[in-house]
Structures are given as structure tokens and as C-alpha cells.
Amino acid sequence: MAKLFLQVCLLHPAREAVARCPECRRCFCRECVVEHDDRLVCAACLRQLAQPKSAARLRLGGVLRVGAAAAGIVIAWVCFYWLGQMLLRTPSSFHEGTVWKKTFLDE
Asked: How far apart are CA 88 and CA 94, in angstroms?
């Protein structure tokens, strides 16, 4: 590809190009580019970037977030339930200290 200083504007062939749009990779003059999100983009690409996302994608994103939150709650409940069951199955002699005395003092 030729150097930028040898390029001309796509919309104004009599003017030299001063920027290349990062989206479409075409060269434009100063009047044909605008700054958007700290980048110089052409009007056609700016139009595409500024369009709102489709409602179906937004709804799907909300459903996914709710599903992930529900899955997290269920996983946390299962973990705490399992931990509680394990503590309930622990013999009372363990809590009284008799298991520790038998284990360490007998050796």
C-alpha cells in the first residue's frame, strides 16, 4: 500500500489524505473524518458505530445475566448445604476433644 502522504481523499480526489479510517482502512481528508473514542473515523463508519444494538441482543444479554446470577446462587446453596451436612456428620467426640487426645497421646 502506498504511503499516506501520497494518498488522496476518497470523497475529495483533489485533496490529500490526512487520516486512514481504522474501521474501513480508507484514506480521507480533514473534513471527512471525525474523532470518536479517541480515533479518527469516517462518516460511514461513525454511522455504524453509533447505531444502537438490536433489542434482541440486549434482551438475550439480560437473560444471560439473570441465568448466571441464578446459577451462582444455586451453586452457593449446594456448597453451603454440603458443608452443613459434613459438619452434622462429624461425631460429637470430635468436638469434645476426646478424638484429639486419643490420636496424639496414644502415639
From this structure: 12
